[in-house]
Structures are given as C-alpha cells and as structure tokens.
Amino acid sequence: MVKIEIRMAKSANEVGSPITGSVWRLGNPKRGDLAAGDIVHEGEEIANIEAMKMENAITAPLNGRIAEICVNLNDSVIDGQLLFVLEK
Questions:
Q1: Alpha-carbon gap, residue 43 to 16, rounded angstroms
Q2: In a domain, 4, yes or no
Q3: Residues 6+ away with beta carbon under 8 Å from 33
Q4: Rg (Cα) of the chain, in Å, rounded?
Q5: Backbone angle region of 15, left / alpha / beta, with phi > 0 → left and psi within -120 to 50 → alpha
Q6: Does the residue 75 lie in any domain?
Q7: Does residue 1 lie in a domain region?
Q8: Does some domain include residue 5?
Q9: Domain ranges, residue 50
Q10: Which residue positions in the chain have pLDDT lower than 50?
Q11: What is the pLDDT of residue 1?
Q12: How far is CA 30 from the centre of its chain?
C-alpha cells in the first residue's frame, strides 16, 4: 500500500477544504472545469465538496491565478486539506 502525503492549507493564498468529504466538482456550472493558470475572482465557486449527500461550495478567497490544483475529481479529502494554491 502506498502512503500519500496529505498537504494542509496554511496561508491566505491556500484554499483548504472546510469539511471531510469527496471532491465532487473542480470549477463551477457556469464556467466549467478549472485548470492551473486560470484566473478566478473573490467569491467565485472554484470547487464543490460532497459530504453526507450535501454539496458544499468552495469559493475563491481572493482574486488571483490558480498556481496549483492539489486534488483530483472524486478524491476523498479531510478538513483543512489543501485544495488550491492561488497567486495574486
């Protein structure tokens, strides 16, 4: 069995999961999928985490560019786990 390191969000430009759940969407219904290099705006939905049959929208905390997407679709994540790294 391979042990995978779980990175935690630690700074203002790092977006962490607010709950334990599964990555249901990376992006939003209006815009579609997001990729590294895309520009996002404060308050824009950038991901969706599903937990106990409820969807939880993850929004960008600031205007910036996505430097790194740290999870994949359908990944299980824990509270505080790093989802995105943003650059102003």
A1: 15
A2: no
A3: 26, 27
A4: 12
A5: beta
A6: yes
A7: no
A8: no
A9: 14-87
A10: none
A11: 72
A12: 17
